[in-house]
Amino acid sequence: MSEQEIQNLWDQFLNVWSIENVQKMTLEQYIQVGSKDTFTYWLEHMTRPIADIRGGDASKFGIFHRRDQQDKENGRGRIYDNEYCWFQKFGNTKEEAFKTIKHNILNVINAVTNNDLEEILNIPVSEMFKWKIAFLYQNQRTPQIISIFSKEMLDFLTEDKNLNRVESYQYLLKNKGEQSILSYGCQLVNEYLKANPKQSSLTPSDGDEVLNQSEFVPVIKKNENIMNQALNRILFGAAGTGKTFHTINHALSIIENKTLEALGGEDREELKKRFDHYKDQGQIKFVTFHQSFSYEDFVEGIRAETDDEGNLTYDVQAGVFKEICSDAQIEVTSKNIGANVPTEFSINSAIDNLIEKAKHTEQSFYTKRNAEIKVTSNQSGTLFALTSKDTTIPLSIKHIRDYLKTGQDNIINNRAYEWAIANSLRSVIEYEEISPDLNSRPYVLIIDEINRGNISRIFGELITLIEDSKRQGAQEALSATLPYSKEEFSVPNNVYIIGTMNSSDHSLTGLDIALRRRFTFIEMPPKPELLNGVSVDGVDIQQLLTVMNQRIEFLLDRDHCLGHANFMLLKEQPTLNNLADIFKQKIIPQLQEYFFDDWAKINLVLNGNDMLQSKTIEKSVIFPNADVEELGYFEDKKTWELAPTSFESIESFAKIIRHA
C-alpha cells in the first residue's frame, strides 16, 4: 500500500471507531468470533498495514470469545463461561471484566490525547495492544509515538535497553525531520531489518480469535520464516535480575517461534502452564549445575542398578544432555524419512489413563520372561511395580514414553518393567505420517547456575560438539566416541542450550574461553522501571533502587548492582514492614558480601541514613596488656552495627534517596 492509502486506512479507522463509538462499545462489538467489524479485529488485522501486532493468542485483549464452548474449569487466573473467557483480575463476571477493560482502553485514549504518555505505562493493558491504540488515537499533527511497539526493536534502534517506550519514542523522534510519522516508522523498520535480515517477519504467527488451551504443538513448515535463534545462549547478570525467571520466555520463544516481545505481552501464568506442558513432554529439561555435578550426570556414566530378579548390575546410563539429544534425534530421524510415528497426544493419553487406573486398582503386565508384575500409582502420579518378591520399585514414565516413541523391542538399561507396560500400551497408540517438509521440533536444555559446576569436566568432548558449525547437518559436522558406551555421538541441530550465570559471584569458576566463545551472551541488567509506580509511604521504590545501583556501580562495578527481583513483593504488598524485611534479610547481607564487610562503603550506598552506626572502640579495654599506641592502624579502626529501630521509620529509607 502507498503511504496515502495507509493514511486513508488510518482515517477510516478513526471514523469507524471514534472515541464516542468506543465509549458506547458493547462486548459483542469489542470481540466476536467470525466478525470482522469488532474493535479488536480492526486493531489486529484491518490496520495491520499501519502497524502489525499479530502474534500470540487472544488473551492480549483481556476477554475473548470462545469457539470451543465446552465446559472448562476456572483456574490460573481465568474464568470461563459457555461463551467467553477472561482474566479474573478484571472482574468476576464477563460484564464486569469488559467494563474494566473498556475503561482501561479509554484511559489509554485519554492519556494520549492529553499528551500524558507516562500515564500509559501504568495502564493494565497488554503492551503491544495499548501502544497501538495510543498510536492510532494520537494527534497526527504532532505525533509522539512511532508505529513500532516491539521493545526489542526499540532497544536496537536507540541502542539503549534501559529506556522505557516513552523515552525511546522521544529519543527517536528527534531525528524524524520533516517526514511523516508513517514514512519515518517505515524507515526505522527497514533499518532494523537490514541489520537483522533473518527477522524479516516480526510476528510469525497470526493471532488466533479463539483461545485454545488443549494443545500446544506449533507446526512450522520448512519454507516458513523462522527467527534466528542462538543454539547456545547464556543469560548473565547480577543476582535478582530475573535470569531464571526469563528462561521460560526464552524456551517458549524457541519452541513456539515467537519473539520475546510477543511473549512478554502474554499472561505469566499461561506462559508457565505452556512451559510445564513442554517440560512434561520432555521437550524442555531443566538442570542446575553445582560443584558435585559431573560428566556422568550430564552425558553418561556407569551406575549400579537392580534388575527384576534382584541382581545388581552395572550399566551405562545416559545423563540429562544425552537424554535430550536422544529425544531430539528421534524427532529428526522421523522427519527425515517421513515415517509413521506415534502421536504425542496418544502417548500422553495412554500413560495418563494408566496412571488414573493404577491409582484405584492394581494393573497387571507381563515381562519378556512372562513374569507378572502389578503396577500401582500414588496420588501424585508416580508408578510403582510390585515384584514377585513383594518389593516395590518406582518406575520411569520417561522410559515408558521412550519405548512407545521408538518402538524399541529390546530391553534398555534393565528397564524390563517399563518395556512390559509400553508393550501393552502399544495397542492403543495412534500413528501419523510425518512430512519431511516440516521442521523438527526444537528441544531445550536449561542449565541454571552454569558457572557453579566444573565446566570443562562436565562438558568433556561436548565443548566441541555443541558448536553451531559442528552440529549434525552442518558443513563442519563432527561426532565423537563416548568413553563409557563407546557409541558414536553427535549433537542434533534442534537442541538448544540456555544457561544462566550470576556475574556478581566471583567466588565461582568462570567459563573458560573454549566454552565462552561457543555461547551467545545476553545481559540481564537490573530493571528499576519494572517498579514504576511502586511506593511505600511516599518512598519511590524505582528511584530507591536506581540511586543505590548508581552508587554501587561507582564504588564497585555494574556486575554487583542490586536486582529488581528483591523488591517485586512490594508491587502487591507495599508496606513498611515488607520493605524493612527486604533490607534486613536481602539487601544489607548482599552488600556485606559485595563489599567484604567494608561497612563504611555500605554506609555510602545507604547515603548515611542511620541504619548503620559506628561504635567507639575502647582499645585499652580490649587489649589491656598491649601498648596499642604503637599500632597506628588502630587509630582509624571503626566497628559498625545495625540500628534496629531505624528500620521502623520510613524516614530512614527516604534518606537513601534524599540529599541532606
From TrEMBL:
SUPFAM superfamilies according to UniProt: P-loop containing nucleoside triphosphate hydrolases
Residue span(s) of domain ATPase dynein-related AAA: 429-519
Pfam families to which the protein is assigned, alphabetical: AAA_5
Protein name as it appears in the record: ATPase dynein-related AAA domain-containing protein
Gene3D superfamilies in the cross-refs: P-loop containing nucleotide triphosphate hydrolases
InterPro entries recorded: ATPase_dyneun-rel_AAA (IPR011704), Methyl-DNA_Rec/Restrict_Enz (IPR052934), P-loop_NTPase (IPR027417)
One GO molecular-function entry: ATP hydrolysis activity
